[in-house]
Amino acid sequence: MQTLTIDLDERSYPILIGKGLLQNPEAWQGLPRAATAVIVSNEIVAPLYADDLRAAIAPHYPRVLTLVLPDGEAHKTFQTLQKVFDLLLGEGCDRKTVLFALGGGVIGDLTGFAAACFMRGVPFVQVPTTLLAQVDSSVGGKTAVNHPLGKNMIGAFYQPVRVVCDLSTLRTLPERELSAGLAEVIKYGPIYDMAFLDWIEAHIDALRARDMQALAHAVQRSCQIKADVVRQDERESGLRAILNFGHTFGHAIEAGLGFGVWLHGEAVGCGMLMAASLSLRLGLVDAAFVTRLQALVERAGLPVRGPVLGADAYIEHMRLDKKSEDGQIKFVLIDSPGRVVVRPAPDALVAEVIDASCGS
């Protein structure tokens, strides 16, 4: 078991990474005490791992409840959030109750937002079971639900008390979900660590084959980078925006198609290529860099062409991006390999990129 720390003063917490952590008593020592713990999961993950988590935390909590929610991005809504509150209130939970988010990014975001809101804040633990959640969404305290007009537009910054990444859960991850997670691994190279990008290129086949040593390094290095960024900018007032590389275009894909049609990582993978192409058209990178990134995204099993929504529809959705100011879209662009810049771009140039990047 490896331990990293998100250093946020009194809100600091550990990230535990290793195989078999659901069955490892050490992973569950020292959590906040309470009369009740609530496991929030979904209909896919709960049958696989809820019993293991219940057995692991039962020695620490007299009562352990489980809430099973529908699976998928389409259910990351206020209506689903209300089901969490219904259980918490109906079962007489109090402000010491600890929530455990067992699942992928949707469950983590939803449970974290519920924890931030219930009685103005109760403790919660992230137990991510997808690669995407382990390398990105479970770390850093972003919690939210979607609105029909935009992804993650209603939420809060609220840190967990612990993140437990059991790599063994990745063995049951569907192939498409594994590839989606690789998009968030890949993004850390161009924005922060080109040596890591070199490593990913050399080990992409091992990662797709679920080699545990390769996955452990990918999760550890991704979490190290995110921890360093979040430590410097917890509330995304500046530096943390670099973690949104590919997300401005990607969120537009998700909202434009309808949440859940493309997986988040699929949209981000394609969005990174659009952002790289925009960087090229602005003279920030060369064509060789874009070609290299596209080859890696394709090797990861991700789409490299966006859906045809029309440039106007893309731009309309992107104006709702959280980085936008006064209706002006700001993009996370590659200033040079390993470095980024957050800046606007002319709508006409953005439209050119969209038209060139979409369709068969």
Distinctive features:
single chain; 360 residues; alpha/beta; Rossmann fold; Dehydroquinate synthase-like, alpha domain; 2 domains; seven-stranded mixed β-sheet; two-stranded antiparallel sheet; 44% helix
What does this structure look like?
With 360 residues, the protein is of the alpha/beta class. The chain has 2 domains: 2-171, Rossmann fold, CATH 3.40.50.1970; 175-357, Dehydroquinate synthase-like, alpha domain. The chain is built from 12 helices and 11 strands. A 7-stranded mixed β-sheet has the order 1-2-9-6-5-3-4, sandwiched between helices. β1 (2-6) and β2 form a beta hairpin. α5 packs parallel to α9 (264-281) and α8 (247-257) crosses α11 (311-318). The relative contact order is 0.11. The mean pLDDT is 95.
Task: Give the strand order of the largest sheet, numbering strands 1, 2, ... along the chain.
Answer: 1-2-9-6-5-3-4
The number of distinct helices, counting runs of at least 4 residues, comes to 12
Which strand-content bin applies to the residues?
Answer: 15-25%
> In CATH terms, what is the fold-level topology of the largest domain?
Dehydroquinate synthase-like, alpha domain
* Number of strand segments: 11
Global structural class: alpha/beta
Indicate the low-confidence ranges by residue numbers: none
The topology string of helices and strands comes to EEEHEHEHEHEEEHHHHHHHEEH
Determine the CATH superfamily of the largest domain: Dehydroquinate synthase-like - alpha domain
Largest sheet: 7 strands, mixed
Mean pLDDT: 95
Q: What coarse outline follows from CA principal-axis ratios?
A: globular
At CATH level 2, the architecture of the largest domain is: Up-down Bundle
Top CATH class of the largest domain: Mainly Alpha
Helix content: 40-55%
> Radius of gyration, rounded?
20 Å
Distance between the termini: 44 Å
How many domain units? 2
